[in-house]
Amino acid sequence: MTVTTAPYHSITEAQMIPRLVRLGPNLYGAVFTLMKLLPAHYILQRAEQRGELGDGPVVETTSGTFGLALAMQCALMERELILVSDPAIDPNLYRRLTDLGARVEICRDPAPVGGYQEARLRRLAEIRAELPESFCPEQYSNPDNPRSYGVVAEMLHRTLGDVDCVVGPVGSGGSMCGTVRGLREHTPQTLAIGVDSHRSVLFGQPDGPRGLRGLGNSLWPANLDHGVFDEIHWCDAAEAYAQTRALHARHALFQGPTSGAAHLVARWWADRHPDRLCVVMLPDEGYRYQATVYDDSWLADNGLLLDAPPVEPVTVASPAEAGPGWSRFDWARRAYDEVPGTVARTDRPLPERALS
Known about the structure:
By secondary structure, the chain is α/β, with parallel strands linked by helices. The chain is built from 11 helices and 11 strands. The strands form 2 sheets. It has an 8-stranded mixed β-sheet with strand order 1-2-9-6-7-8-11-10, sandwiched between helices. It has a 3-stranded parallel β-sheet with strand order 3-4-5. Helix 2 crosses helix 3 (65-77). The chain starts with 12 loop residues before the first helix and ends in a 26-residue tail after the last strand.
């Protein structure tokens, strides 16, 4: 018998949908191998269906896991990929991206306003002008990013029933806004708690250097809907790293530091509300961080080694008062301009994508 095989051009659903792990009496983790596979796959699939991909390369700006997800998907689709990044990209990720066939350009100098993310956007615009047949997924502003998480919301509702609270890190705004909107179609009372890093502009702080990567932003993503969020928590790198290690030691979940930051907040909220069901989004595995977050010597050398994670946040009256450690603010589903103590919007937001 002759067996014929066709090229395999897609990530499987099993790779994209998180597994649910019980972390406490009323706390479940939505554990992703690589969360960004979901929007990367969905955005490219929808673009192909609409005839937007054409014959040109896929181009995008990224310093993290969205680039890896795109590289995986483009390798399977046999499509050229150009990524624009900055010096924060770690050598192991760079090697994976190039092994998958991506061309990676590094912006060495930050822009005066908007930092490296603005510099990356400018270079991305230059590339797109040079390659008019290219397609850009535009993860920060493409509404297909949050739409892709509708399947996660349906899975959570189908498996757990009514979810009282979702906790997760915020970067592009896609995962939290998309998941929470989907859940609120069933349960409008579902709370959304966003986890950010200090010196991120997303929820009212001034831009600045951030040791904790994978969440936060120096520019405003159009996909971030501030009115979705009930609470915002900020934590620093040492706190997130300590909780990442605690999550591994207690639950054998080998995740990255954004997962640790989200679990720090979710564990606290679940303990305070024992009669309510909480889900925490745990975005990616920890293999990229074995030489950093999971290395005690590296943590000690960089002043990031804590004996134990903090027990509770400091509640603040405005984003301006948050920091330097774990802080909590009642955002109350307000628009940005309705929240007192936020930094004035002086830098331009990331551009809106035309709905098509």
